[in-house]
Structures are given as structure tokens and as C-alpha cells.
Amino acid sequence: MHAQLTTLHVVSMILAYFADTSVPVTRLLDASGIRPEDLGGNDSRITPHQELQVCANGLAVREDLGLELGQRMHISAYGILGYAALSSATFGDAWQLLLEYPALLGTYFKLDLRIEGKLAWVSASDYQQRPELEVFNTEMCLASLNTICTDLLGQPLPLSATQFQYPQPAYSSLYAKSFDCPLHFNAQSNAFAFPASWLSRRLPLADAITHQEMLMRCRKLNSEFSARQLWLARIRQLLSEQLASSPGLEQLAQQMHCSPRTLRRHLRALGTHYQELLDDLRFERAKALLCQEGWPVGRVAEELGFSESASFRHAFQRWSGVAPSHFRL
Q1: What is the spatial distance between Cα 8 and Cα 172, in angstroms, rounded to a whole number?
Q2: pLDDT of res. 227
Q3: Residue 68, domain member (yes or no)
């Protein structure tokens, strides 16, 4: 299950990375719907659109941001799941645990570990988010997984090879800091390889009692988080099917078989609210339609339930920072 909600961890990391530069926080948070005061909430949850918007803002300033963030995403960033992995008996056990709970990892990819001969390959596939951020997210994903390996083992994992599906970027010389091995671009998959024998290595922080306690917490947290994900997915589906004539909060509550008060409470617990979800879905649909021929701005506005084109133009400017006509260029 891909994450439909995530924490503010990546956003906070981006702000921390640019903290000593001249880049203002407002620029990094622009069009994300995240306020500086939101960053102090430990239980706050945001949508992928919000996180990716901040990523896009940061990427516009630093093209190798994905690699930089990946090097900073240590195992402790993954909370209970990270500590459960650290206390696993072997490196292979830790990897099995990480792959078992993708919702807790908050990844945008399907992760897999396979054995081919004497090599173990860790791959990231099935990316379904903003296409223009695929390279960024691939870099951050694989670099962070390699960082996690170092944290688990207490020493760098000897990589045999790393490969990427996209063409070699202009800043490819910076990859060596994250991947000390032969690099291959325009490959069939995004993956890195290491000697499979390392999977049997005992971890330096292995502790059976701590591991069992962390594992129980992981199972409980995953159950709660997955239930929230499914509940949110149902709301998004209902709204997506009714964008041309969106239901109000009360009507949506009826469709969810709950009271408006209960709906508000659940959305608040998920770190969002009705209008934010509606805007998020409208924005995604608007971008898709604007990229198609035969969809003038007026027709897009009507498809999304706006009574006037001017209202849609104003909303799109607020969401993206540019007018619909400029987005098409």
C-alpha cells in the first residue's frame, strides 16, 4: 500500500537543509497549504501532494536535493519501525521487516529484495506520483535505503552496483557520495546490489526482547494507519466521482454513514479538512485536463464544479503559483 498520508518529516528536513541559506521558508512552503506553525505538531499528517509540492519547491533551488535528503534520512526517521529493524537479529531479518510494512515507511515506491546468484538486489518500482519528481524521489529513496543499511550494520554496506531507469543527469558526479560502486543509467530498474552473504550478518544492536516489543507496536500502528488510509481513500474516491457537483461536508458525511461532526473529527485527526481534500483533488484533475488538447480553461472550470472561469483561474493560481494558461506553456 502506497502512503496516502505521511508525516512532516521530509518537509522538516527540507526546511532544515535550507535553514542556513537565503531561501525563505515561505518559498519552500509555497502552494503546499502547510503553515510554519504546523511544523511543531508531532502527530500532524499531510497528503502526498503537500509533501511533493515542498519537494518541488526545494528542487527548483537545488537539483541534487534528492541525493542530499537521502543521505540524511537515517533509520531513526522511521520511528518504531526503525527501532524494530535496528533490534532485529540479522540484516536479512531487518529487511524482511521493512518490506512487510510499506505504509509505515511512507514510500512512493514498491520495494523489493531479490536474490540473483551471489547478489541481493533492492529495487524501487511502481512510482505513481508527479512525473516531474520521479528522478528526485528515486534518488532520495535509494540513497535513504543505503543510509538505512549503514545504520543497521554500523558500517557501510559494500555495494556491487547501482542502476537507474532514467538518463544520466548532469550532476551525476555527486552520486558517488551516496553510491560507492559502478553506476548504470538507462537501466531496466532502479536498484542497488550487494553480496547476498551480508543478509545473514548479525546486527550490532540486535536484542530479542526489545525487538518483540517494537514488533508488537509496529503491528498495532500499521493496523491503525492502514485503517485511516482506507477511510481516507474512500473519501477521496467519493469526492473524485463528484468534482463537477461536489457534495458539501454534510452530504459527504451521509455518504460515509457518519455525522458531520464525526467526519470533521476524523479529518482533523488525519491532519486535513474537507476543503483541503477537495482542493487537492481539483488541482490534480485540473493539471491532467490542462495537459490535454481540446480542454479550454472554461471547460476545465465547469468540469471541476466552478461556476465561473475567473473563480477557477484564481483557485489554480493559489494552488500552483501560476495561471492555468501559463501552466500549459
Answers
A1: 28
A2: 79
A3: no
pTM for this prediction: 0.77
The arrangement of strands across the sheet holding 110-116 comes to: 110-116, 119-125, 190-195, 161-163, 183-184
- Count up the domains in the chain and report the number: 3
Q: Whole-angstrom Cα distance, residue 54 to residue 71? A: 18
* Cell digits of residue 187: 537501466
Give, in order, the Cα–Cα distances in Å from 312 to each of 49, 174, 327. Answer: 19, 42, 13
Among 25, 40, 62, the domain-final residue is 62
CATH of the domain at 225: 1.10.10.60
pLDDT along the chain (329 residues), means of 10: 63 94 94 80 69 95 97 93 97 97 88 98 93 96 98 98 98 97 98 98 98 95 80 90 93 93 85 87 91 90 93 90 80
Same domain for 252 and 317?
A: yes
| Res 5: pLDDT | 61
Q: Which one, of 39, 43, 41, 44, lies nearest residue 28 by Cα?
A: 39
**CA–CA separation, 308 and 125 (whole Å):** 41
Res 66: pLDDT: 98
* Cell 540513497 sits on residue: 143
If asked whether residues 81 and 130 sit together in one domain, one would say yes
Query: Which region holds residue 313: left if phi is over 0, alpha if psi is between -120 and 50, else beta?
Result: alpha
Report the SS3 class of residue 225.
helix
Which has the closest alpha carbon to 305: 248, 249, 244? 244
